[in-house]
Amino acid sequence: MGWKKLNRCGESVRLEKVLQKGMAFRWREIDEGQTWAGVVKDRVVVLKQEQEDVEYWQEPGLEPLEETLADYFNVGVKCDRLMKTFAEKDENIARAIPLVRGTRVLRLDPVECLFSFICSSNNNVKRISSMVNFLAAQYGKRVADFAGHQFYTFPTIGELCDKATEQELRENGFGYRARYIVGAARALQERGGEKWLLQLRSEDRNQVSEKLLELPGIGKKVASCIALFSLDKYDEIPIDTHIWKMTVSKYIPSLKGKSLTNAVYDKIGDHYRTLFGDMAGWAQTVLFVTVFDDYHRGTSTSKKRKTGKRKAQKVEPGLKAEEEFPGKAIPAKEEDMYLSPLDSSEIVEGNIKPLRHSEENLAVSPFSLLSPSEDSFDAKPAKRNPTNRRSPRRQNDAG
């Protein structure tokens, strides 16, 4: 079958704007931002960024990926038209859009999304990716090898309940999050598992938020992320420190000096919903990606910390840093409410490290000249055994 175009609807998609910006955490950059590999449902998906489109590799003999990827990338939402509408309402969005063209809100699997954002509390993108990849490799099923990497499904709620223990997760660097992962898996199982989560897509935003907040380890911001990125609540507004600072600076200056309480969190969300309507979460995503890119270009007012000694984190009024809770878990409803994945790259300790990948290069034929990347998180590295490169290899066991 070979390469096929993803974009049936004329919508722009830029992989670097959606796969590395704190929505999804298990995509591997294979070829300097041009080629990516990840798992969607139970399939390894290989994507290639072209100038005006995204192409995906369709393996002969397997079920077509077109509908699966159309759903994952939300191509049914006319994002380009939506951004034009936002730009007419707000000059900040108007300035941001040319810089972040191709940004979209993904439609993620709710189970993986929920546990990914439990891992995100007071954390940074690199370590979140380490944790999420560990959960998949340790408790999911191995489905294929590609470009020297082993790929796994994300574990089901049942698999997490049966296999994951707080002790093992703590030993592997999850810290206080270990208790919340185990507790959330059990709570979801009691409520009906995956079926219960999927049913939330049909409920309104406030109901979804209330139900998510009942789960261990989920506070306001994490609930907002889960609702926006996996439960179709496109009027949900995740508020981290960067959106908070932008809001105070450019939208609601009267909040300066105030704490980001639950009431203020809701007030900010209502402001953006009034301004941008029932798709306000897409506008927030554009603003966040703008800040994200500025931060990594070094043009943000946020200062990157130097490696070495742990330093107390400077925070806005009402924001909690992990340094404030030495030696114990951060309270469940405070830990994840206000901190961005960008905020704590140096202050979180643990044992999660990039694990060595297999150097057996098992690549799809179009990538026969590619080398495996050096940041694999495969939990079970294979013994080096050079072979000819070939297409992703299906696995019939759990690896």
UniProtKB/TrEMBL annotation:
Alphabetic keyword roster: DNA damage, DNA repair, Glycosidase, Hydrolase, Lyase, Multifunctional enzyme
A biological-process GO annotation: base-excision repair, AP site formation
CDD domains attached to this UniProt entry: ENDO3c
Xref: Pfam families: HhH-GPD, OGG_N
Residue ranges, compositional bias (Basic and acidic residues): 313-323
Protein family per UniProt: Belongs to the type-1 OGG1 family.
Protein name according to UniProt: DNA-(apurinic or apyrimidinic site) lyase
InterPro entries for the chain: DNA_glycosylase, HhH-GPD_domain, HhH_base_excis_C, OGG_N, Oxidative_DNA_repair_enzyme
GO molecular function: 8-oxo-7,8-dihydroguanine DNA N-glycosylase activity; class I DNA-(apurinic or apyrimidinic site) endonuclease activity; damaged DNA binding
EC numbers on record: 4.2.99.18
Chain positions covered by the region annotation Disordered: 298-323, 366-399
Record field: catalytic activity: 2'-deoxyribonucleotide-(2'-deoxyribose 5'-phosphate)-2'-deoxyribonucleotide-DNA = a 3'-end 2'-deoxyribonucleotide-(2,3-dehydro-2,3-deoxyribose 5'-phosphate)-DNA + a 5'-end 5'-phospho-2'-deoxyribonucleoside-DNA + H(+)
Source organism per UniProt: Rhodosorus marinus
Residues of the HhH-GPD domain: 119-285
